[in-house]
Amino acid sequence: MLLDEIGEMPVATQAKLLRVIEESKVRRLGGISDIRVSVRVLAATNRSPEKAVQSKLLREDLYYRLNVFHLSMPPLRDRKQDIPLVASALLRDLNRKHGCRATHLSPDVLDRSQAHSWPGNVRELRNLIERAVIVAGNGEIQLRHLPGSAMPAPQSPMPSIPSMPVPAEDVLQIRAGSRMSDIEEAYIRLTLKQTNNNRRKAAEMLGLCLRTLHNKLRVLEGKKTRSAAQGRDAPG
Predict the structure, then answer these.
(1) What is the tally of structural domains in the chain?
(2) Closest alpha carbon to 215 in 188, 235, 197
């Protein structure tokens, strides 16, 4: 008897299961007498049994009663060398289920499976193969039989672009503590210099509309005029 996801069983039902295992007896719903049973119990869970016990999701006495022989099954992503064997077994089962005659996974599909992380574990692989079996019907399972979002091709690293040396006159050096208005003014004037005072091109480089740049320059010119006037009025 296989008990899948034993940690999801209600605690009250776990108590009844423990009684069955301990006494080898069951009583039908509404019955008045016990029936002796002789079964081997195989329990499975996708979470750590010890943590399930600590979280009160799994009864401690049931855990120790079941944990006579413990088998730990690593996730599919940690045993990708088993994918061909697992896929072969799934193909036989799914061919019978759907009346198909798919034979094997193509080398391209197997290569893609080795690069996939399999977050859904074996259930994800089964779902993928089941759809492919239905689509293919018979013969080799190929990439075109898989949904477009399944096992996406690994992204190739972008080729590095060699950095070009930046001329010193194109670099704006900023002293820590500088006012933002002064930094903005210096950046605008440097951009205008690089565009030979082409305001439209400078506005595009700065990400501004031309009118906004004109307004900023008008403010800067006014600031410059006021500074010059104050210099002339200063006592000698």
Answers:
(1) 3
(2) 188
> For residue range 82-122, what is the model confidence (pLDDT) as tens digits?
999 999 999 999 999 999 999 999 999 999 999 999 998 99
Please state the pTM of the whole predicted model: 0.52
Q: In this structure, are residues 14 and 7 in contact, taking their beta carbons and an 8 Å threshold?
A: no
Same domain, 97 and 115: yes
Q: Which of 54, 50, 62, 46 is nearest to 13 (CA)?
A: 62
Output the average pLDDT for the chain: 83
The last residue of one of the domains, among 66, 84, 104, is 66
What are residue 102's DSSP bridge partners? Answer: 139
Tell me whether residue 58 is exposed, middle or buried, using C-beta atoms within 10 angstroms of its C-beta: 0 to 12, 13 to 18, 19 or more. buried
Q: E strands along 91-135, which residues?
A: 101-105
Asked whether residue 151 is assigned to any structural domain, the reply reads no
